[in-house]
Amino acid sequence: MADQPATPRRRGAARTDELLQVTLDLAAEVGYAGMTIEAVARRAGVGKHTIYRRWSSRSALLLDALSRAWTTDLDYHDTGDVRADLREQFLRSAPALTDPPIGPVYRGLIAEAQSDPALRATLHERFLHTVEQSTLDRITRAQRAGELVPDVDLEFAAEVLCGTLYYRHLLSTRLVDEAAVDALLDMFMAAYAVR
Amino acid sequence: MADQPATPRRRGAARTDELLQVTLDLAAEVGYAGMTIEAVARRAGVGKHTIYRRWSSRSALLLDALSRAWTTDLDYHDTGDVRADLREQFLRSAPALTDPPIGPVYRGLIAEAQSDPALRATLHERFLHTVEQSTLDRITRAQRAGELVPDVDLEFAAEVLCGTLYYRHLLSTRLVDEAAVDALLDMFMAAYAVR
């Protein structure tokens, strides 16, 4: 970096990106427990104060690292077949949300949020609500296209679709696999598909 | 206890009950973080080894404390109206699973289970699976009674019913309230009620 002609502001942005990438590298290597401010500082070759200047806590750093790793590849496709698009998206995102780097960071933040209501609110607002909302957008488009019954509020259905898969991932030893996704979509389509 | 004519075996059982009750009292007073083996031993007036003789870890102690607090009041009623019985049970159990003593112990164990797959398996087997199974039993009886459509496997539906409410409780700041339970049951009945 030293030989790049960066303005102080651009250099700051580059350093932020670098610190988030170091955090994600650590997530993949040592998991959530090892992702301390100390470990990130050591790996990045900076002092802890450099990290605390940008993030007030480990949670704040990990939330931003999660945002960086969370790509638009997690958005729904729209082929005009709502069941197929939901299926494809659930099966594509399940491993992305489970495997490093997202998996350990996400699961660790969810664990910490159990004793920290403010973190739970932030986590929901920045990630889970985003997932629910993109699901709601996709099924609302299907409703407008006549695939799903009209005059039904689908907001809670989006929560059911997301919530069931998160429950399985976080609270059981079962996988979010094809059988689970198909069973969930069977119920969703039985409730809302136009016959 | 010293003046009770207890056999050593009965005395041991009484002491186990007492230690679990002390654990639950602490849960109500100081929450999960304060429920250490040390704190339980201090409150009960015993050495730490007395606790470790019965439970190999804090998680093991807390799992048994949770079992003790979990009463059969959490079972479903069967009035012959499946929607009403599910609704009544969800609204009755939601505060029981949220408030002390169950609430902080359960939420804390769920948090620890995120970094401990063996604990996650035990927690699912002893508690979450039990909830799913009693839900499945109730809706299967409704299917046999002709309230729900025949020839549909309802096992995943039971997971959807439980999972959605756990998701809301654990991962959002929203409440498991009447509006949420009614929306969930609207979807369930739209999918499976005999029309």
How is this structure best described in words?
Chains A, B: InterPro entries: Homeodomain-like_sf (IPR009057), HTH-type_TetR-like_transc_reg (IPR050109), HTH_TetR (IPR001647), Tet_transcr_reg_TetR-rel_C_sf (IPR036271), TetR_C (IPR011075). Chains A, B: This is TetR/AcrR family transcriptional regulator. Chains A, B: It holds the Pfam family TetR_N. Chains A, B: Keywords: DNA-binding, Transcription, Transcription regulation. Two copies of one chain form a homodimer. By secondary structure, chain A is an all-alpha fold. Chain A has two domains: 60 residues, Arc Repressor Mutant, subunit A (Orthogonal Bundle), CATH 1.10.10.60; 122 residues, Tetracycline Repressor, domain 2 (Orthogonal Bundle). In chain A, 71% of the residues lie in helices and 0% in strands. In chain A, helix 1 crosses helix 2 and helix 2 crosses helix 3. Chain A is elongated, with a radius of gyration of 20 Å. The N terminus of chain A is likely disordered.
Q: Can you say what the CATH homologous superfamily of the largest domain in chain A is? A: Tetracycline Repressor, domain 2
* Largest beta-sheet details of chain A: none
Largest interface: A-B, 43 and 44 residues
Distance between the termini of chain A: 61 Å
SSE succession of chain A: HHHHHHHHH
Provide a count of the helices of chain A.
9
- Quaternary state reads homodimer
Average pLDDT of chain A works out at 91
| Rg calculated over all Cα atoms of chain A | 20 Å
Name the shape of chain A in a single word. Answer: elongated
Annotated CATH architecture of the largest domain in chain A = Orthogonal Bundle
Specify the helix fraction band of chain A: over 70%
Overall number of domains of chain A: 2
CATH class of the largest domain in chain A: Mainly Alpha
Strand percent estimate of chain A: under 5%
Which topology of the largest domain in chain A does CATH recognise? Tetracycline Repressor, domain 2
Protein name (chains A, B): TetR/AcrR family transcriptional regulator
Keywords (chains A, B): DNA-binding, Transcription, Transcription regulation
Domain HTH tetR-type (chains A, B): 13-73
Organism (chains A, B): Actinophytocola gossypii
